[in-house]
Design a protein that fits this description.
The chain is α/β, with parallel strands linked by helices. 44% of the residues lie in helices and 13% in strands. The protein has 12 helices and 8 strands. The strands form 2 sheets. The protein has a 6-stranded parallel beta sheet with strand order 5-4-1-6-7-8. A two-stranded antiparallel sheet has the order 2-3.
């Protein structure tokens, strides 16, 4: 297997790399699916409404607090609900779905089986960082999962008001880590995000732990996060 040479720093994505949603969706928890039936959400008209609601989320992503996140997701669910009036969802229903999405850490997120062991294996041998498109509630989640202690630096999209593959995400991460890009590697489940990292000079690795992710020509890939250890020249 091809090895990554002269690596001194490792950047991790979170969702699809270290963490996954048991519901199968980052936008709808199992509780939210009680209010928003999956079969309805798959209808073309509703998918179009969801896409527009997501676009509005993306346009207003520079956030300071979990309260701001709550307000944005409440509006997201309200918009989707308005497209399905026959469901008869009440304000209280929408608030319950939003509260669960934003505050319920224990039920809505899981670490992949090898996440802790992999972080322990590289901690202290490399500088470790996070580059993640995410929301303010990620901080208490990472504290709950007890993995913040492994990382030297963090780049969150909501703090910059932009998303990968915007070059600012990678430049912020590299500045914080203090290493030249060629001595770092980034693991992500999105080929688009990895192309952005590659443009910034960072070595890309595609992780295919989530369903439906296919290998990409020219990018090293692993099936689960522990596969990173086989790529590193430790």
């Amino acid at each position: 297997m091809e090895k990554l040479k002269n690596i001194r720093g490792i950047f991790f994505d979170l969702g699809g790399t270290l963490i996954y949603p048991p519901s199968g969706s980052w936008m709808f928890s199992e509780l939210a699916y009680r209010y928003f039936p999956k079969d309805r959400l798959s209808e073309p008209q509703i998918k179009s409404v969801m896409s527009e609601a997501s676009r509005k989320l993306d346009e207003n992503h520079l956030l300071q607090s979990i309260d701001e996140e709550y307000a944005q997701f409440y509006e997201y669910y309200r918009t989707v609900s308005a497209a399905m009036p026959e469901l008869g969802l009440t304000d209280e229903d929408l608030r319950k779905a939003t509260e669960d999405k934003v505050y319920n850490k224990a039920d809505n997120y899981r670490l992949f089986d090898a996440s802790i062991e992999t972080l322990q294996a590289v901690h202290g041998k490399y500088k470790l960082g996070i580059i993640s498109d995410t929301w303010p509630s990620i901080v208490p989640l990472l504290e709950y999962l007890d993995i913040l202690k492994y990382f030297d630096c963090i780049t969150f999209s909501f703090e910059l008001g932009t998303f990968k593959p915007d070059r600012r995400m990678y430049e912020d991460a590299l500045s914080k880590m203090g290493l030249p890009p060629e001595s770092t590697v980034f693991i992500d489940d999105s080929a688009r995000n990895l192309e952005g990292a590659k443009v910034a000079g960072i070595n890309p690795v595609l992780i295919r732990a989530m369903p439906g992710i296919e290998p990409v020509e020219g990018i090293l890939d692993i099936e689960k996060i522990s596969g990173l250890l086989e790529l590193l020249d430790m």
